[in-house]
Specification:
CATH class of the largest domain: Mainly Alpha
Distance between the termini: 57 Å
Number of domains: 2
Strand content: under 5%
Helix content: 55-70%
CATH superfamily of the largest domain: Winged helix-like DNA-binding domain superfamily/Winged helix DNA-binding domain
Number of strands: 0
Largest sheet: none
CATH topology of the largest domain: Arc Repressor Mutant, subunit A
Order of helices and strands: HHHHHHHHH
Number of helices: 9
Structural class: mainly alpha
Radius of gyration: 20 Å
């Protein structure tokens, strides 16, 4: 008689069909303590979680430690997942909670040497243009550091991560109206500073010309 496979061994096989079924099965196995499932979830989401933290917080921060903290939060909270949103939106919510905790713990703001990925600059851009983009991004993140954490999180999710307002609201567990108000207040503060900073003003204009504040 063929031996039945152990529930914690072998390759993880997700349920074919919709993403919701796949997520439900993956969560069920993770909650049951299936190490293969836990590893599969980590491998699937780790790059995205790291990138989200990078864009929300900036590069001069303990990103690896925060990513580990985020996954601890995810694994600890998985039994509460009820499929009311997508698993990825729910994970983003955990990441944002970790980021918010980091902002609250920060005693002071360090200078940021790099803020956005190299992909912000075109491959064809000159060295001078790339330097200007990096400096503009540094100035943007310096202004973000001055914002109230919830405003900063809403703004970065909307304006930098390019998430729709409904998704920002879902991730931050707020209403769409509250999310929109936080984005607006953050933008007002940043644009006020940009009026006195031509480089930052140009950077914000290039980055946000096509972005509309709607759900």
């Amino acid at each position: 008689m063929a031996q039945q496979p152990s529930p914690t061994s072998g390759t993880l096989r997700l349920v074919p069909g919709s993403a919701e079924l796949d997520d439900a099965e993956l969560v069920r196995r993770c909650v049951a303590g299936d190490r293969v499932a836990l590893r599969a979830l980590f491998d699937r989401e780790r790059v995205r979680v790291h990138a989200l933290l990078f864009r929300v917080i900036g590069s001069n921060s303990p990103l690896d430690d925060l990513a580990q903290e985020a996954f601890l939060e995810v694994f600890r909270s998985l039994p509460t997942f009820r499929s009311e949103s997508s698993l990825r939106t729910w994970i983003d919510r955990c990441v944002v909670r970790v980021a918010y905790g980091y902002f609250r713990r920060k005693a002071r703001t360090p200078a940021l040497s790099e803020c956005l990925p190299d992909t912000t600059a075109s491959a064809a851009a000159s060295a001078e243009e790339r330097t200007a983009l990096r400096e503009a991004a540094r100035r943007l993140y310096a202004e973000l550091d001055r914002l109230e954490p919830r405003q900063r999180l809403a703004f970065t999710l909307f304006a930098i991560e390019d998430r729709p307002l409904r998704e920002v609201a879902a991730i931050m567990e707020s209403s769409v109206v509250t999310a929109k108000l936080r984005v607006w207040r953050a933008r007002q503060a940043i644009e006020k500073r940009a009026k006195r900073d031509p480089l930052l003003s140009e950077f914000l204009g290039c980055a946000g010309d096509s972005k509309q504040e709607n759900a």
